[in-house]
């Protein structure tokens, strides 16, 4: 288990933490996609999982940069936080952080779509208008873009960050997660079932399955419901193991 | 000015506060309209103005019920808070509170539209699908419904609450506010320009113009930028004056 990683590290060099010298970039929280100056499309991500990861990454000795959507959380001690609103802003911040990252963890619940047109003034209701159509445009898949860039760098023999993605699903969790791991060229994915009452979005606890490439197959590790900071540590230790290989 | 109301009351009966014995119901915050279990449509209302009104109403001696959308604020002391998410939930809570209210203040930024269909499972992205259409249905106008009911009660000689609405606009503020005051049969409206940087949504300060029916015309009072609790007190004192007439 990943617990071994901690003990081996702490035995090998008591003064050195497992993530010492590593730069970890994380995205967290939801994004907000403006319809007009007051209305937006968003989702129920509280940012707690990403913030727990940031805090634990600092505890493990990493230098941590947190690219955060709008959340009601305070910045963990020692974390460099970059605030963004929309998916396009988050993507720009993520791409800018790429070269300076050893591990990149995409934990944000990025809005899949944004309104195609953003009104400058608040949209007025028209008398008698009982329905309204909003046309949405697909947002870029930030983590897939980062992972694709990482793949290109590696193919060219250049150093590139290890990429960890998240999959929040309400059904067929393992199926969609395996598909995303491969299709998006991620090194590892954290899959969780957000339909479980009391877990996931907004909660302080979470359960997850970690999936990663191991030789020619996909290995996995199930983590039972536990506080988000404990899950964060398991995720980071697994990512560190993969990074060290 | 409305300041006279306080002094006349405190002179008349030092033990009695201006809103003693009155039941004030308020709505506050945004509503969230679900697209699926994780996504929603909402707006930038922080709830601060409504919560300031609730706190000041308690300070003025009223019995206060606060129907609140999702906000990151704690309940002011002495306030009965009812949490809701969607416009339909807020409407049900508001209608249930109607008969038990002397003054009803609709401060919530109710979403005008909600997704017509709510998916049970998280909507999956389809490969190649670059655009998406969301059909929205108009939400009921909660404060207009409450005001119309109040108007009917009064016409029938029955007691009914005084109705105060809000108009958050980004342009032509006075024009839209006068129109809403009359068309929605409100007794008073609080109009503010949310396009002013540093004021309105999310801010601790606000400026507003109060408009109300006085004989055959519409009277108004401009309140310069001030902390939301100070604006809340001006609004409540004006509403109390109208209620006592």
Give the helix/strand class of chain A. Answer: alpha/beta
Widest sheet: strand ordering of chain A: 5-4-1-6-9-10-11-12
Count of β-strands of chain A: 12
The coarse overall form of chain A would be globular
Q: List the secondary-structure elements of chain A in sequence, H or E.
A: HEEEHEEHEEEHEHEEEH
Helix content of chain A: 25-40%
Major β-sheet of chain A, in short? 8 strands, mixed
- Poorly predicted ranges of chain A: 1-14
Q: Cα distance, first to last residue of chain A? A: 15 Å
What's the helix count of chain A?
A: 6
Round the Cα radius of gyration of chain A to an integer and report it.
Answer: 19 Å
Quaternary organisation: homodimer
* Relative strand content of chain A: 25-35%
The largest chain-to-chain contact, stated as pair and per-chain residue counts, equals: A-B, 39 and 38 residues
How confident overall, as mean pLDDT of chain A? 88
Polypeptide structure, described:
The structure is a homodimer of 245-residue chains. Chain A has 245 residues and is of the alpha/beta class. Helix content of chain A is 31%, strand content 30%. Chain A has helices at 3-12, 48-59, 87-97, 142-155, 173-183, 228-244; strands at residues 23-28, 33-34, 39-43, 63-68, 79-83, 103-106, 113-115, 131-138, 162-169, 188-193, 205-214, 217-227. The first copy, chain A, has an 8-stranded mixed β-sheet, sandwiched between helices. In chain A, helix 2 (48-59) packs across helix 6. The longest helix of chain A is centred in the last third of the chain and has 17 residues, at 228-244. Mean pLDDT of chain A is 88; it is low at 1-14. Strand 8 of chain A pairs antiparallel with strand 8 of chain B, so a sheet runs across the interface.
